[in-house]
Amino acid sequence: MSFEIQFIPEAVRDYTALDGSIKKQVNEKIDKIKENPFIGESLGNKNNIDLTGYYKIYVARKAYRIIYRIIKNEIVIIEIWGIGKRDKMEIYKIIGQRSYVV
Question: What are the mean pLDDT values of the chain's consecutive 10-residue runs (102 residues total)?
């Protein structure tokens, strides 16, 4: 079973800012998420940033992370919320600021 992937607008900007070799690796990971959305590691509280309901998957030898959540409506949608480096919790802080209604 394959699931639908959607990017929030900010994650589209994250993706387009990546260089080609990282994009290729991100695409491979997104294909894996599309086949099994539970392949990622479930997130909770990261440095007082509530990321409950989100998942992460590593890219480029753990230098980057794809942060996503699973939305269950009539069809299951995997929503990409960000792609970025973990360095100093950067990506988690960004996702915390992007959090709309979860």
Answer: 86 95 96 92 89 94 93 78 83 80 46
Total domains in the fold of the chain: 1
Kind of pairing between the strands at 49-50 and 45-46: antiparallel
The pTM score is 0.78
Contacts 24+ apart (CB under 8 A), 43-50: 43/67, 43/92, 46/89, 46/92, 47/89, 47/92, 47/93, 49/89, 49/92, 49/93, 49/95, 49/96, 50/96, 50/99
Give me the CATH number covering residue 61.
Answer: 3.30.2310.20
- Domain coverage including residue 17: 4-98
